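Late entry, evening session. Most of the bench is empty. Finally got around to the prediction I had been postponing all week. Sequence below, unchanged from the version circulated by S.P.
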Amino acid sequence: MPHAEVSLALLFDAGAAGERTAHEVYADAIEHAKAFKDICGKASMVLPQIQWRAAAEEVASQLRETLDVPLPRLLMDGWKLRAEMLSYCDPTKYAPDHSFTVKLAKHSVEWSQKPKVELRVNRVSIGALEFTLAAKGTLELAAVTIRGGRVMALNAGSIVLEGSVNLEDHEIIAKRLLDVPIPGRIDFGDGLPLCAPTAPSYGASRPAAALQPN
């Protein structure tokens, strides 16, 4: 199974009610959020209320893109902090041309990000919305293959996910999804670097796109 198919968006896309899509659920939550209404209300001369829904849908699209983070990338952030994993970065103990399988007991990895989405009407900014995205993944049991300080593959039966999306100080989406299946082995091609210097979490530097409802 290609690892790109298993992303954080899977958590927040799950459970859309009836015929409503996940995108519509996001847009509904944003449209009713106080911070969104405040910005649109102050710009009512250039953004009439009839266009607020279109603006909310644009924000929802940008939010969905931010959530499209491969789960293995998030797991890597946590694994880099585990001493038993970092020990495999020592080439004097673990030959770079050999593969090693490391079994990990039940553990959790947390991830958070604070993207901003700027709203623009006719190229003029009318304000920005700050979101706080938080997620936690718990694996009951996992085995990873390490070679030359890089994680080459993951074997795990399932992962328990939970997360939330806040707009300013208010939670607008909260989800918990049990036992997301990760069938078989996920290969990472040339491998994900385990021993690289500490860097921002995946997607942390992603710029927020400007929106133009008009």
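Two things to note before I forget:
Residues 3-193 form one domain.
Strands lie at 99-104, 107-113, 116-121, 124-139, 142-147, 150-156, 158-167, 170-181, 185-193.
Will write this up properly tomorrow.
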